[in-house]
Each structure stands twice: as C-alpha cells, then as structure tokens.
Design goal:
The chain is an alpha/beta fold. It folds into 3 domains: 3-168, Rossmann fold, CATH 3.40.50.970; 185-350, 3-Layer(aba) Sandwich (Rossmann fold); 353-548, 3-Layer(aba) Sandwich (Rossmann fold). The chain is 35% helix and 17% strand. It has 20 helices and 20 strands. Strands 3-2-4-5-7-6 form a 6-stranded parallel beta sheet, sandwiched between helices. Strands 11-10-9-12-13-14 form a 6-stranded parallel beta sheet, with helices on both faces. A 6-stranded parallel beta sheet has the order 16-15-17-18-20-19, sandwiched between helices. α4 (75-90) links the parallel β4 (67-71) and β5. 53% of the residues are buried.
C-alpha cells in the first residue's frame, strides 16, 4: 500500500517505540503533522525551538532512548541548534527532524534555505537528508542506531517538503537493533589486579548509557570494595550521596580536598566520563597526554580512549555492560584504602553542609536545608547555567538514578524546558527547576507549555538582578568596571499568574517554606521568586570580596 512520506516518518517513529515528541509547527512539514494527528504519539507543542530541542534532550537523558524533536527550516532549525549543542556535548541520544525546502528549489537560497549537512556537522553525530520517501525506513532506523551507539549523541534528518507528500511503496519500518559493547574477561581481571595492589584508588563516574540496575550494582561494588567514588560534573544522580563510598562532585568549584585526592591517586578509574574541561578543572587534575596516576579509562567509543589521556588500561565498553562484568571480581577482605574512603566521605559531608548565614535578608543555605528535609528522594532537579546552580550541585544530596537533568555544556535556559519534559515523562514525581533570573528568561516562555499540558512543576527562580557568573568573573578581572551584566526583570509573580500558573515572592529566608508549600498545594506550574542579594554570589565569598581579592 502506498503511503506519503509524512506517514512513513510517523510509522518509523512508532516502530521504534516513540511515545512523545516536542515540536514547533511549520509549513515545511505539514504532512508529518497530519500523520501525527491520529498516530497515538503525544505531541508537545512548544513556543520556541530551542526549548523544544531541550525537552527532547531531557527525554533522551532520562530514558536512554532518543528524544524526538521536530522543527521547521531556517530560523526554526537554527533556534533548535542550542539544544543540539547540549545533546552533543552531553552525549545524549536525540533525533531532530527539520522541514526543508522542496527538492527542486535547492541551491537557490530559497525561502529559509540552509544546507544542514554543512551547517550542523559540529552539532550532530550525523546529518542526513531524505531525498527519496522510499528510503525513510532506512534513514530513520540508521538515525536511531547512530544516536544510541558508541558515545550517544544527536542526529539530524532533514525532510524536503515535497518529499513528504510523495506517495510511495516502502518497506515496513522495524525497530533499530541496540549495539552493546562488553569488556573482555582479561581486562576485568587486569583491573582487579590493579585495584588490589593500589594504595590510593579512586573512581570518577559519569557519561551516559547507564540504567537503574547498573547504578545499583555499581554502588554495591564500590561499597563491597570500600572504594571512593566521585561523580563527574552534573552526573551526580549516578551515585547515592549518602553512601559511605561517595567522595563528592568532580565539577566546577570542586572541593579542594577532593581535587588533591584525584591528583594523588595511584590508580584512577574514569568510568563513562570524558573528563573534559569542567570536571578536570581546566585540564589540571590529570596530565595530558601522560597522567601521573595509573589510569584506567572505560568509555563506549574507542576513539575517545587515548584522545586526551593515554590510559594504562583502556576498555571500550558502555557503563552498564562494564558494571555487569565487575561481578566476577571478589573484594579484598581488608582493603588498604578503607580508612581513606571513610575520611573522604566525611570531608564530603562537611563540604555539602549549607552555610546558615550570608549577605542580605534571604539566605540560600537554610533554604537548601529545608528542601533536603521536605522533598522525596525521587524528586527530579533541573537547572541551566549560572552561579545559582552551585546551591543545587554542592548542597543537594542526590539519592536515586534519574533525578537530575542539567547540561554539562553549561547552557543557559535549559532548566525550565527540562522540567516540563521531566514532568511529562514522570507525572507522578515532583519536579523542581532551579533557575537564575538571566537563565529563566532565556526560555521562560515554555512556562506556558507547562500550563497548557497541566504539568505542575515548581521553579525556584533565584533573582539577583545580574548575570551572576559573568559579573563574578568581571569583578575579578576588571574590578569596579561593570559592563553589560546588570538586568532589569519583570514581576515574576505576575508573570506566573498571567500565564495561568501560581506565583510566590520570597524576600526573607523564613518566607520560603510556606511559599513552597502553597506552590505545591496549588496543583499548578509555579514560580517562587527568591530575591537574593547580589553580594551572595557564592556560598563562601561575596561579590565585594571577589572584587577586592580578599
């Protein structure tokens, strides 16, 4: 039976188990929108393509299956590139479908024409264009395979408008075949010998291609071996922070004691992590290309192994398969490093205890303490980029897998669309978005998406009236020469209410708890605006201290 290209796209998505997509509609892919009408696929209509792509990234991040986003050509596609960049740097499976100009108009700089195979090469693992509707099952199956294999990442498929209305006969779409890569028994045995002879071993875990079982099994392994474990930047959900093996966050503003332990480790195991600029403290924790530590690097893509750091033992395997293989190793009866592990966890607990005071009338330390005591362990936290995020990353103790969606690429505006996507995926769980005033306004319009679909997220909007991170750097490098970092903001409480949500204003620390409870009880998407003194730029140093270098 003949079908249109639009129908074949939707058939291929359904064959690969797609249940939801995000989109901003466009006339360039009307045939796909028509096929979605009675497909059973849940379609979230967003207000800007960047937010739509970030929602797809979150679905990929929290499920391990490609998040699906659809946008129109030209401005729609370039808006979506912000989400593509996040998925690429964060190793998140995602497929972006872009409506394209008709085939007979190519190479004329037609209306909104872009050659995506040139423009988006840096943003995606593969950029393809489907010129023949009969090849749609082939292209879509390949897109799923590429997005999920090796180091996961985004794929772009462009869809010429006229191709989507062609009626053709094509093979029935079938689901892609996941590609697993397992470590060899000899490699696991060698790792076991390295660990047993070590005096100061340390694991740093990160990346993607984990699952709930692998996270639980690795925790069991680490605790049996009494090994210290750190989590790479914004991958904290991979290890229970209350475990006696947890050593802390290997990210921006790392605990100096933990940084020193990494440098002094005799066996350092990177599991799933690329150990790029942020977790490596600007490439200072591990020497390039020859580390001082005996380095074991486990990563699902061979090209990454040895690219920056020459490992003593390289294992090409996905984290889940690697962790399963660890079961063959027997833990030593009395590990030489056990007391060190206990000391590292105690240091972490002290480091992650919030301060009780600070500049101004609102103190984020007690607010974080209240949140820790009053939210469930499976609450999902999302955020974008900014100094405000330090309060989450340093002081929230993650307990469970799939409770974090935050960009390792440091992209502003991510937290709100991520919260919308997370709540849509897990409606039974509480979702809290942390955002700064600058960060929130990047994609604040997606608050209406939460309202439209009845997704009662809670946004803690930390408003200090500045682009905080940039001001911090500015005052350090160019003291008393403020330029381009002041902000003028709307009334965020009124903003929330105008969109049909719930709004609260917090101007004193003690106002936060009742405001949060009212937001939770409202059953609506909510914004809690927290007015924070700009001086409270970090948990330990004020803006004036940074300016004065004191």
């Amino acid at each position: 039976m003949k079908k249109t290209g639009g129908q074949l796209i939707v058939d291929a998505l359904k064959a690969n188990g797609v249940k939801r997509i995000s989109c901003v509609p466009g006339e360039s892919y009307l045939a796909v929108l028509d096929a979605l009408h009675d497909s059973g696929i849940d379609t979230l209509v967003c207000r800007q393509e960047g937010g739509a792509a970030m929602m797809a990234d979150t679905w990929g991040r929290l499920t391990g299956e490609p998040g699906i986003c659809m946008v129109t050509r030209g401005p729609g596609a370039t808006n979506a590139s912000a989400g593509l960049h996040i998925a690429r740097q964060d190793s998140i499976p995602m497929i972006l479908f872009i409506g394209q100009v008709a085939r007979d108009m190519r190479e004329r700089e037609a209306f909104q024409e872009v050659e995506y195979r040139r423009a988006f090469t840096e943003f995606a693992k593969w950029v393809g264009e489907i010129d023949d509707a009969r090849r749609i099952p082939e292209f879509v199956t390949r897109a799923f395979a590429v997005a999920t294999s090796g180091r996961p990442g985004p794929v772009v498929l462009t869809l010429p408008e006229d191709m989507l209305v062609d009626e053709v006969e094509a093979p029935e779409a079938q689901p892609y075949t996941p590609v697993e890569n397992h470590p060899g028994p000899a490699q696991i045995a060698e790792l076991g010998e390295l660990l047993k002879t070590a005096k100061r071993p340390l694991f740093i875990i990160g990346g993607t291609r984990w699952n709930e079982e692998a996270v639980a099994d690795f925790k069991d392994f680490a605790e049996r071996w009494k090994l210290p474990v750190g989590c790479s930047f914004r991958r904290q959900m991979l290890f229970d922070h209350t475990s006696p093996s947890y050593a802390g966050d290997v990210g921006i503003g790392i605990n100096p004691a933990l940084a020193n332990e990494i440098r002094e480790a005799d066996v350092l195991v990177l599991l799933g992590s690329r150990m790029s600029e942020m977790p490596s403290s600007s490439y200072t924790l591990i020497d390039i290309p020859y580390p001082q530590q005996t380095l074991v690097h486990i990563f699902p893509e061979a090209e990454e192994l040895g690219r920056l750091y020459r490992p003593d033992l390289a294992i090409c395997a996905a984290p889940a398969e690697f962790v399963d293989a660890l079961k063959m190793l027997e833990a030593p009866a009395s590990p030489a490093w056990a007391e060190r592990t206990d000391a590292m966890h105690a240091t972490y607990l002290k480091w992650s205890t919030p301060p009780t005071t600070g500049p101004g009338q609102v103190h984020m330390g007690p607010i974080m303490t209240w949140i820790e005591e009053n939210v469930a362990a499976d609450t999902i936290f999302t955020n974008g980029a900014g100094n405000y995020a330090t309060w989450v990353h340093r002081f929230h103790r993650f307990r469970k897998y799939n409770t974090q969606s935050a960009p390792t690429s440091g992209s502003m505006g991510y937290g709100l669309p991520a919260a919308v996507a997370a709540k849509h995926l897990f409606p039974e769980r509480e979702v809290i978005c942390f955002a700064g005033d600058g960060c929130f306004m990047m994609h604040g319009q997606e608050f209406i998406t939460a309202v439209r679909y009845g997704l009662p997220i809670i946004t803690v909007l930390v408003n200090n009236g500045i682009y905080g991170t940039i001001r911090m750097h500015q005052e350090r490098e160019y003291p008393n020469r403020v330029s381009a970092t002041d902000l003028v903001n709307p009334d965020f409480v009124a903003y929330a209410k105008a969109f049909g949500g719930h709004g609260e204003l917090v101007e004193k620390t003690e106002d936060f708890a009742p405001a949060f409870e009212r937001a939770r009880a409202s059953g609506k998407p909510a914004i809690i605006e927290v007015r924070l003194d700009p001086e409270a730029i970090t948990p330990t140093r004020t803006l004036s201290q940074i300016r004065d270098k004191s």
